[in-house]
Design a protein that fits this description.
This protein folds into 3 domains: 163 residues, Beta-Lactamase (2-Layer Sandwich), CATH 3.30.450; 95 residues, Helix Hairpins; 153 residues, Histidine kinase-like ATPase, C-terminal domain (Heat Shock Protein 90). Helix content is 53%, strand content 16%. It has 11 helices and 14 strands. The protein has a 5-stranded antiparallel β-sheet with strand order 4-3-7-6-5, sandwiched between helices. A 5-stranded mixed β-sheet has the order 9-11-12-14-13, with helices on one face. Helix 1 packs antiparallel against helix 4, helix 7 packs parallel to helix 11 and helix 9 runs antiparallel to helix 11. It is elongated. About 1% of the residues have low confidence.
């Protein structure tokens, strides 16, 4: 259900939930701070009043004289928000204040008669729906042998401050709720206005004809993100149209290339069946058929290489010795080169040259380049293959140089297009226009740099640069 929800809801709801969570956490922290400050203030006031009560006592023979009371003591005694008891060590009560009403004093008195608690440590007591802050302190008379150590039990009403805290809490909750509602409405409005173009964009996407994809969206972008989206989509459409044209050209050329050998085989078979022939004639026709089948095999192999590339968009790279790849390619093409009286000049480097690559695809790329070099070299010539490391050890360079017909600048500019062949190569029976295109795609997927140097009648030199790696010794 969430996946089908509208974008404004997906944006607004998390923002609102985060905002509510922030208000709750912030309110809780704020109220905790306020409550802690309130208790600190109450504790200071309670301790201060306890000290004043102690200091305001009038002593006779170093004992408090409750008949002769000071003015301060009388004020504390009658304060309705303050209650205190003075107790002997044996638990008997020497004196109680008369501030609160009698029933409440009785409740407080019963509470004070309970187990003693830690001295000088304030704590809360709930009595008859009221909260009082209490503390126990000692009154000492160290200068007299008859003096006793008395306990002063003091309680102060904190109900008023709690009510004020509740009022503040209510105000924060109401204010936070109103703020949340206002910001939710504002956020939803902003998101709706910000996504108008996106909704129009989505509606226009439905109008694109798959058979004839054209893109027209006459709405001006209102943000950097919309500019990025519209320009990226426009670029994608252009690339898609280009890929569609390439696909059509690929299918047309593949059909044409397959049609030619099939027609040749069909004609040869019709000739064979037309009349009786001599064994030599049959052998000649079979050799033609074999050559045609080999051409078809090479064409289908090149087409499979193209398909293999599409299946390795996210390929897993391995650390391999580039020498072994080049050596396999040289071994593979040595006999074919010898049949054309072409020499493959290759001397492997003495030390391993490591790189991160897909072994199978890199083999295809190097093999295609060596095949092209042999294909366009004249009989009696040589193809040079050199592999070396840069002076700083960061890159590897593979150089393949032939002594063939060469290419002009216009032809070099179109190298890499599928099924493209230079005019000088169109009559070559072994060329399909796929070898260099596949090699280029493979090497570019390995982030390689490809440099082609050629001139008519001067041969071609292809240089490939790949990043070198240095695996840790084990």
């Amino acid at each position: 259900m969430w996946n089908k929800s509208s974008l404004p809801l997906k944006i607004t709801l998390p923002l609102v939930l985060m905002q509510i969570l922030g208000l709750i956490c912030g309110g809780w922290i704020l109220m905790s701070k306020i409550d802690a400050a309130r208790l600190n203030e109450l504790d200071e006031l309670l301790i201060g009043q306890t000290e004043l009560i102690t200091e305001s006592l009038i002593h006779n023979a170093e004992q408090p004289d409750f008949l002769e009371r000071s003015e301060f003591f009388k004020e504390f005694e009658k304060d309705p928000s303050l209650y205190f008891e003075i107790v002997r060590p044996d638990g008997s009560i020497l004196y109680t204040s008369s501030g609160p009403d009698p029933a409440f004093r009785e409740e407080l008195g019963r509470f004070f008669q309970g187990p003693n608690v830690a001295l000088n440590k304030p704590y809360d007591v709930d009595i008859n729906d009221q909260t009082w802050r209490t503390v126990y302190t000692l009154i000492r008379f160290p200068n007299s042998q008859k003096a006793e150590t008395l306990t002063l039990k003091t309680a102060m009403d904190e109900t008023v401050s709690i009510d004020e805290l509740d009022s503040i809490r209510t105000l924060i909750i109401v204010g936070g709720g109103l703020l949340s509602i206002l910001t939710t409405i504002a956020t939803a409005a902003i998101v709706l206005l910000s996504t108008v173009n996106l909704r129009l964009f989505a509606k226009n996407l439905r109008l694109i004809d798959p058979e004839n994809p054209k893109w027209s969206f006459p709405v001006r972008a209102h943000s950097a993100e919309e500019i990025l989206l519209f320009t990226s989509f426009d670029t994608m459409m252009q690339e898609m149209l280009k890929a569609r044209q390439i696909q059509k050209l690929f299918l047309a050329n593949a059909s044409h290339e397959l049609k030619t050998p099939v027609a040749g085989m069909l004609a040869a078979l019709e000739v064979v069946l037309a009349r009786e022939r001599s064994p030599e004639s049959y052998q000649a026709i079979c050799r033609d058929l074999l050559r045609t089948v080999r051409d078809m095999k090479r064409l289908t192999g090149a087409l499979l290489d193209t398909s293999l590339l599409d299946g390795h968009k996210n390929m897993a790279l391995q650390t391999i010795d580039f020498r072994s790849v080049v050596q396999r390619v040289v071994d593979r093409w040595s006999n074919h080169a010898a049949e054309k009286s072409i020499t493959l000049e290759w001397t492997p480097p003495p030390l391993p040259l490591w790189l991160a690559a897909h072994p199978e695809l890199l083999d295809v790329a190097v093999s295609n380049l060596v095949d092209n070099a042999i294909k366009y070299s004249s009989s009696g010539k040589s193809v040079g293959i050199e592999l070396k490391s840069s002076s700083d050890g960061k890159t590897l360079a593979l150089i393949i140089k032939d002594q063939g017909m060469g290419m002009d600048a216009a032809t070099q500019a179109r190298l890499g297009e599928i099924f493209y062949r230079a005019d000088v190569a169109r009559s070559h029976r072994d060329s399909f226009g796929l070898g260099f295109a596949n090699a280029k795609r493979i090497l570019e997927s390995h982030k390689a740099k490809i440099k082609v140097e050629s001139a008519i009648g001067m041969g071609t030199r292809v240089t490939i640069e790949l990043s070198q790696v240095h695996p840790a010794l084990t």
